[in-house]
Amino acid sequence: MPETTDAAADPTESYSYLGPAGTFTWKALDQVPQARGQHWRSVNNVGEALDDVVSGRSVAAMIAIENSVEGGVSATQDALATIPNLRILGEYLVPVDFVLVARPGTELDRVRVVNAHPVAYAQTHLWLEARLPSHEHLPATSNVAAAASLLESGIADAAIAPPGITEHFDLVQLAEHVGDNPTAVTRFVLVSRTVELPEPTGADKTSIIAELPADHPGSLLELLEQFSTRGVNMSLIESRPIGDALGRYRFIIDLEGHVLDERVADALLGVRRFSPSVMFLGSYPRADRLPVEYVSRYGDDVFTEARDWLRGLIAGEPQ
Amino acid sequence: MPETTDAAADPTESYSYLGPAGTFTWKALDQVPQARGQHWRSVNNVGEALDDVVSGRSVAAMIAIENSVEGGVSATQDALATIPNLRILGEYLVPVDFVLVARPGTELDRVRVVNAHPVAYAQTHLWLEARLPSHEHLPATSNVAAAASLLESGIADAAIAPPGITEHFDLVQLAEHVGDNPTAVTRFVLVSRTVELPEPTGADKTSIIAELPADHPGSLLELLEQFSTRGVNMSLIESRPIGDALGRYRFIIDLEGHVLDERVADALLGVRRFSPSVMFLGSYPRADRLPVEYVSRYGDDVFTEARDWLRGLIAGEPQ
Amino acid sequence: MPETTDAAADPTESYSYLGPAGTFTWKALDQVPQARGQHWRSVNNVGEALDDVVSGRSVAAMIAIENSVEGGVSATQDALATIPNLRILGEYLVPVDFVLVARPGTELDRVRVVNAHPVAYAQTHLWLEARLPSHEHLPATSNVAAAASLLESGIADAAIAPPGITEHFDLVQLAEHVGDNPTAVTRFVLVSRTVELPEPTGADKTSIIAELPADHPGSLLELLEQFSTRGVNMSLIESRPIGDALGRYRFIIDLEGHVLDERVADALLGVRRFSPSVMFLGSYPRADRLPVEYVSRYGDDVFTEARDWLRGLIAGEPQ
Amino acid sequence: MPETTDAAADPTESYSYLGPAGTFTWKALDQVPQARGQHWRSVNNVGEALDDVVSGRSVAAMIAIENSVEGGVSATQDALATIPNLRILGEYLVPVDFVLVARPGTELDRVRVVNAHPVAYAQTHLWLEARLPSHEHLPATSNVAAAASLLESGIADAAIAPPGITEHFDLVQLAEHVGDNPTAVTRFVLVSRTVELPEPTGADKTSIIAELPADHPGSLLELLEQFSTRGVNMSLIESRPIGDALGRYRFIIDLEGHVLDERVADALLGVRRFSPSVMFLGSYPRADRLPVEYVSRYGDDVFTEARDWLRGLIAGEPQ
């Protein structure tokens, strides 16, 4: 699989992703229409991917942000929290499915050392325990690297890899669907430098990262009230240490709705006034395309009407 | 004391008050600089006073709204809740002090029937019980009417009246300071038709009347959160029945601050979006002229900065 | 109508009420099964009625506490707030309906002076304005006193009185249903000295009066959270001035449920811990006998189970 | 360093830890007085450590739960959430400090491949980038395994390891304090099977894991109110996916105070009634031994007094 998918690649139209081709991240990027026919830069980690975006080497990077089993991807969350002027353009879901591969001629029962990325290993651990109880784990830096390593050294007998890997490497599949959780899914986001907002679609999500005022008991409650008093639901809240001391956290929050929805805009104003540091990461269509539901009293028209009312009474007009 | 204080009275410059001259309401109106030298219309109750304002007979009416002992004046609260397009221009405090008066020649120990407005009677009841244990109460329509009645009929022997009443009537004072609560005070408001807002002074109050959404447990809590999440304090909250059924209330609320203060404006927007019916009664200087205190994170600059931030991120500017 | 309804009256079985016979309060007391055949003491005001209870002259007193149009009865609320060790045993509703009565031979069109209790006058004002536009109001101390006065003096031409009054007085009815609000109703409570609680019926109400911590912005919100976090609805909240200064209030609150309901008991514990002064006025059957509705997660079993769970984990038992 | 510290080891007195000797976990266990002179079982991961506890092979296991830079340790949090009947006995802090070690004779400038546990690599990444810009990372399963690997294979030139490692292995130190964050610290907990609670010390922490009711917007807010309405502060809140679907989380929460503190017990009752699943992980002394501060109105005496009051009024005693 070529790293550059097309001949006519324009260098301002590079997309970075955790490679090589065939990884789950590659599968996520494969869902992006505007990335087709462009240059795809394979990188080693989320830091490199975002560096490409910041420096302008790539117009966007696809990065994993959350796994339904493993939780938030700390490296991604921390990078988004500390690198300014990034924007999420969209989110993409990739089912987590694994195969066990080996060099041709290997028999499943003879496998002893399994090369696997630690996260992949955690998600296939039960299968491996049951089927290969005396196996040993050799960690790899990516799912594809685990497979590739089989061709380079003789330490591992098999590797945990994404489906389809045998199309790219001279390996055979010993078992498929070896993931412990058949409904597992990883959520990816396409990240760019600050650009104009995508139009609201009615099925949008807004991501922010906010810190709490220091030494203020109950301040998380107060942060959440900014959303509840405007009828804005959260689809995600995760805490991450700020890093300067134990007990100091920032919160990664996904809200249902678009910043151009009045209730979301009003909630963000409340958060901005409250939080010593808040980052707006973008409003973008939800991967599931499900329309956001909200109580009618939080509709745009209600906000507009209230502003008109206030303007009128300040002007001294009859109510 | 003449009902019209001056010769040059212009009919568009009438002020209505619960008369006659000498009542507590008259004393409140006497604190209003712009009313000096104008025509003062003595009326019999708050309904007549507000009728004068609505019809244009008077530019404003002084009406009692709350007593520190007796509580809110229901008639005033209900009138303000049901007559549209009224505005409070200012508030005025009058200490509640009473004297006992009688026809010349009356001895205190011979007093048996005491004429008194019911509210005044309630506030002098302990003194009367102690000093005149066998007295009877004859209700009057106002404090001054109680005194005036002594000159018209022989039923009552004495009357509870405001200090200074003997300057206007041929009566003698049998006792002074007969009020049970020496710190009692009545709060009056000067009410006009909708006009432009007074400028913020930094020591302002904003009055509203709001109904709650029907059949929504916890909706009072939600109403109060509109204020607490913007750092707006309430100096008054009173419930009044809407009148259509038991258990349905509207709330009379005084907020600290002016509608041109950002935090107050934002709270009013929240109330407007939430409440099926909200009336703005005005922003006006507090009687005590004490500056409103609020936490710095609710300052106007914080609101302005947050709006600028939101505008910038919507426009795609670097954060 | 005799003041004592029966020969065998036992003085420890007196019931006090705002008389004389025929008043709305009398109609409320008439709904009380255990009062039948006992001595009924007619008194002049709520203060006397409660004095009878405190002194032991009566086992209970029937007093008006709220009117669907006029709101809470301040005198009752303030008396309950300041007299210790009273308990509400039950509540009773009486429709507010009025007739206009006069001495025999009086013609409606000739009526000029109308004797009426101020509250009754407020509730018939629109009818009187429309039908007798030039009438004058003479205040009375009770609805029945208004009627009785017609027989004693010649000042008033007619009186506003409760239906049925012509059975007790030699008067004729000039008009019926003269009340402005046909759905108006007054709520009465039967008050006793502290006694054992009535059993829960599933359709109960609990009344308390609570003060807020001084100088604590948002403390009303915190009080209400004691109820909302336990799924306890309020059917009434009214503020009354404490009386020592403007801006200091106590709150009269009716809760849905019985103090022996776990969620209500837990909420009262929360209020007690929070409030500098809270009075429990009783748990008693609702006048409308409607079962209290609440979310199942606030059921007694949920509270019991949680306590068992906590006890177990403190004891180190497996969870 | 011997795996068993003493000759007289009793198998019921084994302590499990992520080994081998010298790891940060070993340093944490070294702070536990009752573990001295007992058998220390070196295991490979948190799963094995907790298996030892559940099976009874060890009386307790020391496991890392949070890092001030990297955040919560997902494996530990998920294990505690899914294995019943575990109890935290205490918490221990270990500063995160690293050295770079190599086989004797290695020069720093010649190092190309660095063996390091992924978490350790993340915390020394900036130092390595600056000092060894062209290095490559080889992942290891633990910090000590990274060092040990140098003696077994020739792939890596150096390893990131804890200070003191050269006392146990025939390696030399190329650089010390190579951690990027000098204030970084890891928090460990000592976990046992359910036992009786440690006595409150006044400087305690209580750990729970709670799920939220499904499809209930604002339910996190409601969970947090269980604490705020009882004056209980949280020192930690982290979300972890439940694992069955995206968007379903459980919350790991540390509260200030002991379950035998009334306010904590009452809050736990509230959580139990609210949450479809709550696990109590223990009350234990804080590592920093700082007394818990709380507002006096949440003191034990206030809770006791309120219960006495409620009991009295239910019994019909005078208030």
Automatic annotation (TrEMBL), chains A, B, C, D:
Signal peptide: none annotated. The lineage of its organism: Bacteria, Bacillati, Actinomycetota, Actinomycetes, Micrococcales. Keywords: Amino-acid biosynthesis, Aromatic amino acid biosynthesis, Lyase, Phenylalanine biosynthesis. It holds the Pfam family ACT. The record marks 186 as: Essential for prephenate dehydratase activity. Pathway: Amino-acid biosynthesis; L-phenylalanine biosynthesis; phenylpyruvate from prephenate: step 1/1. GO terms for molecular function: prephenate dehydratase activity. This is Prephenate dehydratase. It catalyses: prephenate + H(+) = 3-phenylpyruvate + CO2 + H2O. Residues 208-285 form the ACT domain. Residues 14-193 form the Prephenate dehydratase domain.
